[in-house]
Amino acid sequence: MPPVITGFDYRRVPVAEGVSLNVAVAGSGSPIVLLHGFPQTHLMWRHVAADLAADHTVICPDLRGYGASDKPAETGPDVYAKRAMAADVVALARALGHERFALAGHDRGALVAFRAGLDHPGTITHLACLDVLPTLDMWEAMHGVTAAVGFHLYLMAQPPGLPERMIAASADAFFGHFLDVWTGDPGAVPADVRAAYLDACRDAVPSIVADYRASAGVDVEHDLADREAGNRLRMPVTVLQHDWGAALGYDAAALWGAWASDLRHDTVAHGHFMAEEAPAEVAAALRDLLTR
To answer: Taking a C-beta distance cutoff of 8 angstroms, is the pair 91, 70 a contact?
Structure first.
């Protein structure tokens, strides 16, 4: 059996036609949903979730296409659009009795959270995004040889077929590469959790690629439409991220400021997997956000 978040109840919740999410739930009080990143599952929040559950209802799903959640076939570009994945999250919270909730996401989950904030401003009370730029800004920031750090973005942007075959042929090496190079403290991801991540990713190559492919197509279209319409995030927003801009030549706080008026942007010194490497700091940042 894969590891679980101790003290959390697990269930499967239908959120869309043919799609149910695996979700861990605990605590009571105002709700907060935590969305994982790549190449992970809801387990990445295990420390932060346990902390927040002392006084909040904490909801930790596996995203559509990841972990033990359903992985619908990529029959069109909208199946893994962040818009569809954000709608999953809203439907999940509603099924659990919450019409309004706070939302925090890391990496891919942060892109889903960002889209949820734009598409459902009356539903998302507070928003936190960890170590990403909005999709449109990310592609605009990637240029020259410095973009090599994001090689996987370009690989998984290719049409169906080749990226899936290449990654599936060496799945553990591919996904394990990111767990190795993006981790500041290797001990933060113990062997059993690492094995669970690799097992989950190995079984989800087509849907993970589809998620990334959407971010090179339909997600850009959605972000561009919002930018042109002047749509902004209306709720308090906290962003924690590395100083990627120092290497890639952009001002991350300014880019995020164009999307959010009530913004707190902090640069951190931990590895990419900050919720596992510095859970107390991340939990404190989320608690601070929830007071705004």
So the answer is: no
- State residue 145's pLDDT score: 87
- Where the chain has pLDDT below 50, the residues are none
Q: Are strands 19-26 and 9-16 parallel, antiparallel or unpaired?
A: antiparallel
Could you tell me the CA-to-CA distances from 236 to 29, 101, 104, 111 in Å, in that order? 19, 12, 12, 16
Within a 10 A sphere around the Cβ of 181, how many other Cβ atoms? 10
Cα dihedral 271, 258, 149, 153 sign: positive
Among candidate residues 107, 131, 137, 226, the one labeled active-site is 107
Element (H, E) at 105: strand 101-106
| Active-site residue, from 47, 242, 270, 272 | 272
Instruction: Please say if 107 is a catalytic residue.
Output: yes
Task: Give residue-wise pLDDT tens across range 153-197.
Answer: 999 999 999 999 999 999 999 999 999 999 999 899 999 999 999
